[in-house]
Amino acid sequence: MPVNDTLTPMEASYIATNAYFTLKDWINGTPKAAVERRPVVANRVLGPGNMGKQPGPGQVNPTLGGSSLQGGQLGQVFSASTGIGTQSGFGYVLHFDGGGQKHAIVATRGTRPELGAPDLLTDLRASLVGFGSYGPVHKGFKRTFDSIAPGLAGDKRLQAADVVHCVGHSLGGAVATLVAAQFAGQGKKVKLYTFGSPRVGALAVHSAMEREIGAGNIYRVAHDLDPITLIGPFPYVHVNPAPGSPNFMTIPSPTGQLFSTANHDMMQYISSVGDADAVWEDAMGLSGRVDHDNAVLARWLLHQDNDPGWVQYASAKTLALLFKLFAHVLRAVSTSVVLSLTAVDLISEILLTGMHKVLNLAGYVYDLMCHAARWAGIELKKGADFTASILQRILLAMTSRLRDLAAQALSAATRGLSSPLPLVIGGAWALQQALPL
């Protein structure tokens, strides 16, 4: 049972993974836009997990059977609209008692490219829409939330729970965040657990959600080089966004490769935090191994005597290096960087707030912008000013390359039980398109 009303890392990661089994024929590796039969979901979530395709070599079977939650009861298995009028299995509700309280778990899944455009359109629908008193959130995520909200509101046993645990991976993490915020706004005690989640709210929405849910009740795990968690521009901001935030768990990516699509795989997240004896403090400790400031790298790459030959036109590897450099060098001139955002966010913020009119780009900052321009294939004369037009061209090149990387993630071969690799690319691209030259 949960310790101090909190799921363990293993429980939360298994629950997030098992949300994918609500898709019809997920167990056979051929998911369809329909809802799986309830006995199959029960078998994979709480039972022996012996139906359908089994995990690959060295991978775990993430059933809760045999865990402290095996005595729980499966509630509703629900569908959602993840596109324009397309319904498919999207998650489930579990019920259990512990510590003298009634607990309910709402598990939501991520995007599946096999389902085609409707499932992907949720992620591409990047405009903002209001979410109660919290403020503007991602329209696609809100649309999916709206499709499941009536069923959750009408679930009397869920509504009667003393503690509601909201769990999800990727798109499911984004929707779980909205579910958690909704229940918290109704006065419920809520716990939120996400893995590889994209950003959900814009501007100060993250602060409002942290206050309502309780920052200490948010367990957001992200591999530092998970490409999906990096894509999407300012003004979108993660909950608990910065080192020093309560339960900050941006942890080292398991592959060690820059922008590897495998860093987003749910089975990799289980490997990182889901050991049977693991506690959340372990993941928090891992976050200390991530160089969030990148100061040493910045000093070396931007030293005036260093050959800037490391900049390769449109290279994914050097784009990752540019992201690290922006995070360090622009710390002094941008508010976004304290929220651990990326180069795309920073340039978007400069364009949106008019900072290009007032910034005094000098020294390392000017050198960095020149490297970014060179990476984007833009030739600048020595001492040239950075205009809004040049900044937008850099932004276009970066977002285009990121779209390519996300597309590669979608086309990656399925590995074992779960390799959900969604496409959360619309935000930066749509913003870039909307900005005037």
What structural class is derived from the secondary structure elements?
A: alpha/beta
Tell me about the largest β-sheet. 7 strands, mixed
Radius of gyration: 22 Å
What is the total domain count?
Answer: 2
| Name of the CATH first level of the largest domain | Alpha Beta
Q: What is the count of helical runs?
A: 16
- Can you tell me the CATH superfamily of the largest domain? Alpha/Beta hydrolase fold, catalytic domain
Low-confidence sequence ranges: 410-437
So what's the overall shape?
globular
CATH architecture of the largest domain: 3-Layer(aba) Sandwich
Within the CATH hierarchy, at the fold level, what is the topology of the largest domain? Rossmann fold
Average of pLDDT: 80
Straight-line distance between termini = 56 Å
Tell me the series of helices and strands, N- to C-terminal: HEEHEEEHEEHHEHEEHEHEEHHHHHHHH
Biggest sheet, strands in spatial order?
3-4-5-8-9-11-13
The tally of beta strands, per DSSP, is 13
Summarize this structure as a short list of keywords or feature phrases:
437 residues, alpha/beta, Rossmann fold, two-stranded antiparallel ribbon, 16 helices, disordered C terminus
